[in-house]
Amino acid sequence: MNARKxxxxxxxxxxxxxxxxxxxxxxxxLQDNVLYFYSPSDVYAKKVSAGTAFRIGGLVQKxxxxxxxxxxxxxxxxxxxxxxxxxxxxxxxSLFREGQGVVAIGRLDGxxxxxxxxxxxxxxxxxxxxxxxxxxxxxxEWQKGQ
Amino acid sequence: MPSLFEFANPKKFMDLSGVLLPxxxxxxxxxxxxxxxxxxxxxxxxxxxxxxxxMFVHVPAAWVAMMAYGVMTVASIFGLVNRHPLxxxxxxxxxxxxxxxxxxxxxxxxxxxxxxWGAWWVWDGRLTSFLLLLLIYLAYIALNDAIENETRAAxxxxxxxxxxxxxxxxxxxxxxxxxxLHQGESILRKGGPTIAPVFLWPLFLMALGxxxxxxxxxxxxxxxEILNRRARTLLEMRAG
Amino acid sequence: MNDFITQGGxxxxxxxxxxxxxxxxxxxxxxxxxxxxxxKAKLAALATLERDAP
Lengths: 146, 240, 54
Prior knowledge:
The structure holds 3 protein chains of 3 kinds. By secondary structure, chain A is α+β, with helices and mostly antiparallel strands.
């Protein structure tokens, strides 16, 4: 290998390192902004003040979905450790289910209730035909959403 | 001696690719036909219903979009280090193909996201970094076209492609590093895939078909560029 | 057959996903094929020129 080629390789390596360093800088400068949502534990830890718009994500707590009069519904978002009650008026996506992942966009009111403008369902990474799910449930090996 | 080296390889490439291409086309047609057949005979997913079939065109498009960029980066490194014209041609030829697959990944993902998530688009880490991939492809193509001198265009765009490659691990690990709406990794994860075999097979076959298709398109574009450069050399010889 | 068309009520999303994918890849294929035929024709024309006019 001659000196010229060695110099070129050093140049390519410096490009890769430079690109990586720039990316690390940008990402660390963005910090929390790169997170798409906060978990209920994050909400408590950061003491998010009422009225600040953010996204909260977690699982819809089992047996927590309640439909009030009209289109208004209430449910609880939990991450196992902490939970936040959510109020929402409107249609929910077809993946929205108890025990499933959810992301709500809105703000906390003075009473600690999260007023959502929009509710998105988060899909997990499991893909199964219904028969397999039934079989798993029958054999007792099914732990949905936990 | 180096000039002989440079001349011989494009010729070798033309001979070899001419033989391989029909086989590659046949492999593409076979794997895609099998993938489509299996893909439309699966039961619906227990949660996604029939939209699981969108995955069979979404995941392969996203995979090829990233693979094409990887291929472009490797070719760019060879172009910069070895100064081999075939490497320059190969890098340049991959870009528009990669851009189309990236756009398809975005569009099919959007068509899945609307009924499942409840949104066509969200600005989470995965979707944003993947959109950035499309922008990087477009900027690469623009840069390559903007510089008149062939060699200089190849050098400049190779530098750009290598720096832009930092986006690939960001796309891949975005779903682990940050909270995203996009689901986590289903196939290459610890503890094995979380996709039932009935869905994994069509997904695998379609991914293979898309990969073959990329190589078919890429090979033909490299061949076109070699022919174009031969024609240019002939013209220059006449003029000179 | 009907299930195939309706896609469990998701026809409006499943079929466009396949349609757009097929259309985009077909157009890309045509463009790449066109590029190749053009390059071949140009080179062939130049080669004839070269042979006929020394």
